[in-house]
Structures are given as C-alpha cells and as structure tokens.
C-alpha cells in the first residue's frame, strides 16, 4: 500500500484544475467565489473541470458566506444536479445558532448524496465543541474527512489540537481522515507528517499571484515534493 500523502488543491475553473494536476495534486476541491470563502460551483463549471482532468473532485455545497445552511432544499437540488452530471464527492458543513452541527441540514444533504464520500469542512473550527460535533456526526454515511486548521485562527494556533486529534484516530468520532488546511505553510509539514497526518489542502499557497491569478503548477509541485520528502 502506498504511503503517499494526499494533496488537495482548490480549483475555480478548468485552467486551475489542469495546473493543479500537472503539479502533482491528488484531488481538487471545486468552489466558486472565494470572496465568500468558497461557494457551490455551477454544473457547467463542474462538467468543464471533469472533462479537463482525471483526478478526484470534491464539490462544495454552500450557498452563502458563513456556516448557516440557509435554504437546505436549494442545496439538495444543487447536490442532485451535480450528481446527475457525474459528481461523486462533496464538501459541506453547517452549524446551528448554538455552535453545534446543524444536523437537520447535514442529514438532508447526506441523504441526498446517498453514500457519496464527503468532507465536513472548516465549520468544525468554529464549533462550540469539536469533540461533541465529531460524536454527533459519527456514523453519517459518506463522511470520511474533516478539513480543519485546528482553530478558526489557522494552523499556527491550531497545531496542538490537530496533533491531539490525530492521536485519537481510533476513537469513535475520530476515524475520518484529518485534512489540514487554513494558514498552512510548508514548515508545518514535518510535524504533521510525524504525527501521522497524511492529507493537506491548499488554496492561496497554490497561487503566488493571489486569488486573482490562476493556480501555479510549479507552486503545487513544491508542495508535492515537500510532502514526498
């Protein structure tokens, strides 16, 4: 079995996707509108990216900035349309007014995804209790990953939490893979890998020119090389 670490890169369009794959990305997270921290892309954008690359794609299900679900029925319709176009993996995550997981919204989408694999994204970093959230979500069909920095402030602040959660990987609620993203730097990788964390997520780090510029294959390749070192 390969011990290659997973490198996930945010892609906004087919140009990003092609560059990310060329640089060594293993998977893409597909979003639109990074000014709102990443919303659901159109079916047409998904189809163009799917035609351009052959690595796995995880598609964001999120209609507005923040961590409230909003119109869940609209999100379900988006999920169904994307699935009809061939989407097989997704990203989602919603909190209620108490800071706990919005279980009604998450269950509705998990049901619509019907066993597709999905990531619970950085809403966990805003939760009132990370442990309680993990235990409430435990066992939902398809949930295989948490995208997290360990803290709403980013990996610098959240590193101790990430290491502690990695050490609990055999406990109920902690079985999903930890995918680290949010203020992640190359200098974080050695300690994360030493703790057994084998998946990272980059967005701005793949775009030396900023979010107004496309993904750089060379920047992705630098992360690939560091992960493989």
UniProtKB/TrEMBL annotation:
SUPFAM superfamilies in the record: CutC-like
Domain of life: Bacteria
InterPro entries named among the record's database cross-references: CutC-like (IPR005627), CutC-like_dom_sf (IPR036822)
Gene3D superfamilies for this protein: Copper homeostasis (CutC) domain
Pfam families in the cross-refs: CutC
Similarity section: Belongs to the CutC family.
Protein's recorded name: Copper homeostasis protein cutC homolog
Species lineage: Bacteria, Bacillati, Actinomycetota, Actinomycetes, Kitasatosporales
């Amino acid at each position: 079995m390969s011990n290659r670490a997973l490198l996930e890169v945010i892609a906004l369009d087919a140009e990003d996707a092609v560059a990310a794959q060329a640089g060594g990305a293993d998977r893409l997270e597909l979003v639109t509108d990074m000014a709102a921290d990443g919303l659901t892309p159109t079916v047409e954008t998904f189809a163009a990216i799917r035609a351009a690359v052959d690595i796995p794609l995880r598609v964001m299900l999120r209609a507005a900035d923040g961590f409230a679900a909003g119109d869940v029925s609209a999100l379900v319709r988006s999920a169904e349309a994307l699935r009809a176009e061939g989407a097989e993996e997704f990203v989602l995550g919603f909190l209620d007014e108490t800071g706990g997981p919005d279980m009604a919204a998450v269950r509705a989408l998990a049901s619509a995804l019907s066993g597709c694999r999905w990531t619970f994204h950085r809403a966990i970093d805003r939760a009132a209790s990370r442990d309680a959230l993990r235990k409430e979500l435990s066992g939902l069909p398809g949930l295989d990953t948490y995208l997290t920095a360990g803290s709403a402030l980013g990996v610098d602040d959240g590193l101790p939490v990430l290491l502690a959660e990695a050490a609990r990987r055999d406990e109920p609620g902690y079985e999903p893979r930890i995918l680290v993203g949010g203020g992640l730097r190359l200098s974080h990788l050695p300690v994360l890998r030493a703790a057994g964390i084998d998946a990272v997520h980059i967005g701005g780090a793949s775009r030396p020119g900023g979010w107004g510029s496309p993904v750089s294959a060379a920047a992705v390749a630098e992360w690939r090389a560091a992960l493989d070192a």
